[in-house]
Write a sequence for this structure.
């Protein structure tokens, strides 16, 4: 249902794209229309890879260690206790990484110390947290069959604190591991921690299938944002609707808010790039796509757009130099 609710009619999307290209040509922006057509990216289309797959950012290279800055849970009975548990969890993962480095460097004295410190700390965690740490360790260091098992274990737990390992798994050489990791990340993206909020998000996704009801979908996602203002997916879904309504600048604002809350949201990054293409800002589009692919190399369609955009940006730079 979640996948289908993010998909619009291809026939309707093609028709809208053709109309928008015609408007660009009539208004004297034929060069922009021609270049978008060459890129094979309709200016208005069904939620594309990003807005259909959804949007997270990071510096060049490997995705950064993800640490959620905003809890998806809309309320907490004891925020101080939650903070302490988060610190223990982060410390346990840090010790695991340091232990791995010490073993690789054959510093066995330091490795023994880190092992004992980590064992003491892990003993203070809940059973669920201990299960998560075990699965994460398998995902990072295990054989292929162990990594596949670990992904399924993390899928059952569906805890936001697993996302760092899951983002790393997007780069796993085993295609089944990376594909499953992407699906689990999406499940976590779409989970606020509040069943009422999640239910309304799903309502909006179902309404979004019906093109005449896009305004209703927008209103539902706005309601979700009002209920859970730090839930990134509410903004991401509303960005999708604004894109389909051709309100590209407004969609960009929601994409940017999504990224403030979920900095590695590859769906929002992809959507951000598509909005910039629609506005003719190819350099910004290329930058957004590069960040998206750095986080999730599985975005093959976005990677293919990047090749054309690189040529177009180079042409723009040459023209500016010639005019200057």
């Amino acid at each position: 249902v979640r996948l289908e609710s993010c998909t619009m009619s291809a026939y309707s999307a093609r028709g809208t794209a053709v109309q928008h290209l015609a408007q660009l040509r009539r208004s004297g922006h034929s060069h922009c229309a021609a270049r978008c057509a060459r890129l094979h990216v309709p200016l208005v289309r069904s939620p594309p890879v990003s807005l259909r797959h959804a949007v997270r950012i990071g510096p060049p290279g490997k995705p950064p260690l993800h640490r959620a800055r905003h809890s998806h849970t809309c309320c907490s009975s004891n925020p101080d206790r939650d903070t302490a548990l988060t610190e223990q969890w982060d410390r346990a993962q840090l010790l695991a990484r340091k232990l791995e480095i010490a073993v690789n460097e054959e510093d066995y004295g330091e490795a023994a110390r880190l092992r004992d410190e980590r064992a003491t700390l892990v003993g203070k965690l809940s059973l669920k947290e201990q299960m998560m740490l075990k699965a994460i360790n398998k995902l990072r260091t295990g054989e292929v069959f162990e990594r596949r098992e670990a992904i399924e274990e993390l899928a059952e737990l569906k805890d936001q604190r697993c996302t760092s390992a899951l983002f790393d798994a997007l780069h796993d050489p085993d295609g089944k591991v990376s594909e499953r990791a992407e699906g689990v990340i999406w499940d976590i993206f779409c989970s606020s921690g509040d069943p009422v909020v999640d239910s309304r998000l799903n309502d909006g996704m179902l309404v979004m299938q019906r093109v005449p009801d896009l305004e209703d979908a927008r209103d539902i996602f706005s309601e979700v944002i009002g209920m859970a203002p730090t839930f990134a997916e509410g903004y991401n879904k509303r960005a999708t609707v604004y894109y389909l309504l051709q309100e590209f600048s407004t969609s960009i604002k929601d994409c940017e808010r999504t990224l403030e809350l979920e900095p590695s949201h590859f769906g929002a990054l992809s959507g951000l790039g598509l909005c910039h293409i629609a506005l003719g800002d190819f350099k910004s589009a290329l930058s957004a796509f590069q960040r998206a692919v750095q986080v999730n190399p599985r975005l093959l369609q976005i990677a293919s757009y990047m090749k054309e955009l690189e040529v177009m940006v180079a042409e723009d730079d040459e023209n500016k130099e010639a005019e200057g």
